[in-house]
Amino acid sequence: MFTGIVEELGRVARRDGGRFTFEAKVVVEDAAIGDSIAVNGCCLTVVALGDGTWEADAVAETLSRTNLGDLEAGDVVNFERPVRVQDRLGGHIVQGHVDAVGEVVTAAPDLRARIPAEYLRYVVPKGSITVDGCSLTVVDALDDGFTVAVIPHTAEVTTLGRRAPGDRVNIEVDVVAKYIERLLPERQ
To answer: What is the CATH T-level fold of the domain 8-80, as seen in this structure?
Structure first.
């Protein structure tokens, strides 16, 4: 489980198919083989560690359902380690299981994103949403997506400040909303 509070901007050092080598400083400090690290909000497993690098494999399902398939060497990415029991939950509950890939319509600070229609029902004003692993508060729910206000600090220390119209972003909707929907009896 993650909080959606990005810890570090890292970089893709190499990519060989589904094998990624990432450059990092903070998230590798206490990392071990088998640990989880979120990359642009997508939970990946550490399979190798080097001096300032870590490696992960992304299977075809992950590459097709996230923007990780778009990544190339040199690209900047968001990193977050999983929450520990004693940590503050500064964002919201983020699983690192990307629901969809959205498209930036308007760049930060008033970021507008378009998302697939089947996820619109989970987007509510003042609700939580994750964009590239960043926990954000929805300003407006739209017919084709949503808007969020990105503060200058978040724009500076995450990929959100670098995103332009047309860029693909990973979207994770609020898991609590999905569970509530699943548990409620079908409406007739």
So the answer is: Elongation Factor Tu (Ef-tu); domain 3 (2.40.30)
